[in-house]
Amino acid sequence: VLIVEDGYEYVEVMERFVPDGFAWVRAGDGAEAVRLATAEPFDAILLDMRFDRVPPDRLLGDLDEAAARFDDDRGQGARFLAEHQGTYVLEALRRAGVRAPAVLSFDFGDAPARFSRLAARNGPLAWVADGASPLTIAAALRALARG
Amino acid sequence: LVVLFAGAAEPPPLSPLDRARWDAAVEAEAAGDSERALSAWRSLLRFDPGFSEARRGVARQLDGRGDAAGAEAVLRDAPYDADCVEDLALLLARGGRVGEATALLPRLSALRAGDPAVRLLEAELVVAADPAAASDALRAAVRAYQKAGSAPDEAALVELTARVAAALAVSDPVGAGRLLDDIDDVGLSAEALDEARLLVAARTLAARLAQAAPTPLDPPTRAKVLRARELPPDQRVAALRALAEQVPRAPEVWAALASAQQEVGAVEEADRSWSWARALAPLDPDLAAAHGRLLATRFGPSAAPFAAAALEDAVRLDPGRVGLLLEIAELSLRRGPTGAADQALARVPPGAAERVAADQRRADLARTRQPGPTPPPLDARPPEVPPGAWSAWNLAEAWMGLGHLDRARDENARATTLAPGWAAGWSQAARIVERRGDLDAAASAWRVAAERGGADPEPWRRLGDVEARRGEGAAADLAYEVSAAHGGAAAMLTLAERARWPWSAWSWRAAFLDAGGAADPRSEAVLRRVLRWSVAAGGSVLVGVGLVVARLARRRVSAWRSSTLADLLRVAPGAAGEVAGRLAAIRHEVIKHRLSALTAVAAALDGGDPEPAAWLAARLAGPDGVFARYDAYIAALVALGRQHGVALDLVDVDPVVGPVSRALALLRGQVGSLQRGQPAASGALRAAAALIEPASERMSALIQEASSVVLDGARWRAMWEAAGPHGDGPSFEAAGPALRVRVHGADLEDVLVNLLRNASRASAASGGAVVRAEVSVDEDPVTGVVLARVVVADQAPAPLPQAALRAPVAGRGLSVVVAAVRRAGGAIRVVSVPGFSKGVAVFLPMVEEAT
Q1: Disulfide engineering: B844 pairs with which of B25, B130, B289, B826, CB 3.0-4.6 Å?
Q2: How far is A145 from chain B (nearest CA, A)?
């Protein structure tokens, strides 16, 4: 499983609590994720949504376009990219031909239509809520990978 | 139990001669004549060594004269007299020997044949050292009373409960809240229960006030402090003093200034700066220790009691600083008798590294011990005040009474010179110069008196009065706040009068009632104002006035005193964005990333694997760990509340963040167990996980509720009417789906009314027939994020330049629109609409459920 996150929290937790039956590989930003996922096949991808700890120049997505949403305020644009970075990484992976199922760590409970649109565009896709335990995440990955 | 060494009981049957001795002893004791009381009790005891009351009387008198060791010896001579054993336990506990005191409890329990009062005594003994154990003992006592079918003295139980709850409130606010309900099992009268609630609320508030976070340093100021520390000593003092004037509530700045002043030898000024730092951060043991060391090393013997008091504070705040006990002992020796020094040394716990040195020192002292401490003189002169200062002070008071203020000032100056650390001397100096009308001098003198006065709130209040008369509003507020922090009810009332925000005034009045102001004659009037405001604030249906209602109201007041995030958003809708940002960060960095493994760690512990627990402990308590991050976010939210005059309680009261705070408090108590991998910690982990689990959802709901509005046909019509009158002007049409937009209602109204009014006026001026509003959904394909696109178009020929949206345009309301849209995280631009001359499009974040 490829874990894409700006820190090391998920990979630490998953390696520690779900060591058997999975091999975990971490990518720290979108570019690294694309490089790793195109170099070797993964069964599944675990994507974090917010990437606050990655410098703006390493965020995927068009900053100009994002800034245009906020009357050309580049600060707000960069924040938008960071807050939704998981979806940009997903988009980049799919564009690079990576078809492995992905699990987004983000609570879509109050935005089901948004999740449906994302899944239709860049599936197969599932989500786990904030604070999901490692076993819940592993179960979601396993279910998705089995189709 | 509560009043240590209460007065003598009724006499047993006595011979006429013994009866006369008894009466003499009781009478002398009541008159405060220690010499005569001691001699009468002694003669009674000499003739009957088994006479319990006489023995206790002798011990009481000895202890009152400072001879605790003598009192202890007398009481120890009656090891099977329950009353004497009880007195002995209290005496030992008061001397800090709580362990020895509690060791007496089994014997006392046997002597008293299982009397539940022994458990109350236990609670009394350990309340300061171990509040959790005290609350257990209190509960056990209540259970025992229930079993025995009897009831304790209500007043004593209520008082003790309040003290335990207050002590517990610092480490375990939830447990403190629950304590009262458990104690009620004994069947307290409604009146006592009310009294207890008030007391618990008051004490808990006091404990909280003492804990109240001072202004956290913002990064630029912190950087300035760091830069100032690099400067040469003289410049450093000047730079830090300027900084302290800019940021007067930051204890770090005052501490840095104090260190710098100390280094250049300005010890008086350093003393003052340490006092400010400690007043602002009363729970910081480092500040107390540093201040104590300065007083101990750089001031004369008269400062020794103050140095000892500061060091005692540091030990009380951090019982691990055993080494300070040795310093306290040396300071006590400067004042003469060896008893206090011996007591301080005896408090060094057996396992501590300092114990060897302490024992050695005690042995030295024992060799040189003088025969018994000299009893203090029988006048009212405090022991730390030299006789010359005492007489000068009295003379000054007499001159002042006669109206000779200059003579009073000169005489009092002798007192303050001879006893510079004595607060009463400075208070009198301040009163004298204040009467002479010299406000500058009065302010300086009150400041010194306040700093010397320890926890006495009165000099701080008087300082506040003088500063207010001098027109120094900020300095006055600060002095009043310090007075209030020390429990000064009068200052709380003044702060309520001075408050700029109704919420702030309200909470100071509530604090006044809780802090014992209920006994103040003004309390009824204050209560009425609090009630009036409470009713106006929309919360309560309080009908009728009278004792019962007043009690109920007071109870309500204590529940309302602390506010929730929802309260903050009601008072300050504009804060929604910042609150949302902090909550998102808490969700992301604390809940999601760090705490998702709680149940997994619990399962590992249950399975006998301690390693994940140690891993978790490091992540919780490390420098960048969960606790540190969470505390920073909570401090930011509390500061935000304070900016808007709302006192947020994000532990006990707030239903959104409170459970997370309590879960983290639970985890804080388990770090040691987790490090050691103790299986018992797994229960706490599961409990914390259960508290945290629903928090994320509550946070979303709060933000959504506080900051989203449905934009539908009804709202458009209302907005069009509000933008009128339109008279014979254009007609209005609205098209598109109903959407829920993530923007505060008042902001949305600003945006729509201004756009519609501009369109309507432009149309009316130029004959445009229709104003049209269109709503549609603008979707970002990559992120799936949707924005509501709201266009208001008109048919007036005058073009609207795009630039009009970039700068405030007077009279068109566009600046209001732009600001409101930006606050909501949206955008605004001029667009073209077929069939219309111009349109303004506003993009607003959307909440998904369309209605």
Answers
A1: B826
A2: 22
